[in-house]
């Protein structure tokens, strides 16, 4: 069964289409190295990951290298693949995963590990490294979880530790040279181990003591005792994609994302990212402006997100934001911040943000008391937080989300109670806000991570977590505050793998064999299967949550993040004293050991330096209105794009083409385009009728050409005509819709009689699936005529689903009916 046969039978087929604008398809027969970039989660999550996109464009810019994408198939797709023995394939060329030279997995979250093994299984690739043949793809991993890669060490060939922009290029070059020299896999791995930042697990052996702790980490190659993290020294000069891939479906982060800085030196002692991404390296305002301008032009997005571990700490955030607002406010482009620290969210910054949209703020006090915030080196006080929330409410914001962690080192019952009291104070700081202040509270369980001062700490168990969650829920409810929390079992599993060792590989393999998938998704997480897997392997998972001795060999001790263990030990001791370690961005050097103060150093842009050059666009003229009606084709793979996705495709094409389409008002402006009734997913069309309302004159030919220059494959504007702007929209003017259904052979001999009987009936009730149940609908009122012609069934309808009708007439079930080839051929307007 081909992909085209499967797509009608699954939910959200646009996950698997490929062919998006901005995607790159090279001739794989003309390249030396083929790379499958694999994201171990579903498409809409993976497409939102910036690092994945950066590597995709960097690799495809290389001569002789092709990079394609693959995402974890949703369970319904996996079921079809396994049922029909079909392999997992890439989006761009539908090439089987096992035929690539390199498969590169990004490790963003410990609970995605089961998906990695499942994807290898679906690709027909042996899970364990030592079971693969000489010509098997090279399995490479990277990302933040690669800083403790040991739970996966039996499954991958090498890992890129740290920044991947340069290291992955060098890895491809090494593979090319190895292939040319005809080297064995063992020699290739030796070659890869010589690349700075590349970890080859087969070149280390692990010895264990009787108590389960590590006896030794033994390198098997001279000079390869530790693998030092790879650093990208100059972020401003690094390649950055300005032609992003534009998905058909809405993704988790549906916007232009621009990394304005990498690294953070605030020194929060629980935060792994704050240590593994040091030092701070900023992009210049000019470069940021260039990236945003080009990315908006080429994407049609309506929002820009400024990414950083702490966006408000960017050296010249104020002039940058003002410049962006001045440039894009008229175009109703929103500027968003995923990470704003309490101390950096000034009233001046909030004034700029609210000019386009008053998005809610997420603030992270982390702990309920100033004492515990001193322990974790948060560097903010209750007074700082309340000053920020008071300003936000006064400036017109209504919604604030507070983020806390439970189980932090030295936490007491008083600290938990203080979370509730502080949340109540924040709500009271919005007293008098029009409509009332809306404060939501989110609490997660602290998970100790490798390469932090808290890597030795104990993690709360499941029972303790549930008890604390219940107390917080009840106490917050009494204050009329809502609580969201992270599932206790999910935090437990994250903690096990975050500080796990190689022995967990057997558990992971066993869990996948028992059916574990998408463990980060609450509805798919099966804790009982994980418990069975641990028991089958004779491993107590709670052992990994214990407090570690400071003299113990840790599973990741051979991975060098740039900061020595002595620094982390000193920070741990300072935490018990509540001693503050200043941010070296503004204070003295903390001695973390990352910088060499020559090539590797902080790169900052001070306020006012390199001002952004902007040009304010001409605003739309007056209140003039014009309307053009366009007939559009939707065929090929595009027929699997849903109606809502189709609307998004058109909206973004309009923005990219800079067509003079009028927009609605408010904080969420949308183009004034009238769409037809929803076409069932999987049905083609030669007659999608759209009405475009314009604010200045434009010929129908210009509109059609402008659209076609920006529409993705499968969509085509066929013709257009100018109409009076007062003409009712096509969506309310349609009298008849004509469909052609290609009949599967052989055609039943009784079909003509069946059609005649249908037309002679006054009512034809049928059951139709709706949600988890069914409803009864009458097919007859919407059918004007039925006809057989040249091996096809012609439907003339005033309303109703052609799929449901054709399935009934042909005696098919719903799934088979969705596989029929149906085309909307014409519409008749009244």
Describe the structure.
- It is a single chain.
- This protein is an alpha/beta fold and 830 residues long.
- It has four domains: 3-228, Rossmann fold (3-Layer(aba) Sandwich); 256-487 and 552-577, Alpha-Beta Horseshoe (pyruvate-formate lyase- activating enzyme), CATH 3.80.30.20; 620-727, Pseudouridine synthase I, catalytic domain, N-terminal subdomain (Alpha-Beta Plaits); 736-830.
- The strands form eight sheets. Strands 20, 21, 22, 23, 24, 27, 28 and 29 form an eight-stranded mixed β-sheet that branches.
- α9 crosses α20, α14 (413-428) packs parallel to α15 and α17 (504-514) crosses α18.
- It starts with a helix and ends with a strand.
Q: Report the sheet-strand fraction.
A: 15-25%
Oligomer: single chain
By helix and strand content, what is the structural category? alpha/beta
CATH architecture of the largest domain: Alpha-Beta Horseshoe
Features:
B12-binding protein/radical SAM-linked protein; 4 domains; Rossmann fold; Alpha-Beta Plaits; iron-sulfur cluster binding; 830 residues; globular; 19% strand; pyruvate-formate lyase- activating enzyme; alpha/beta; 8-stranded mixed sheet; DUF2344; 6-stranded mixed sheet
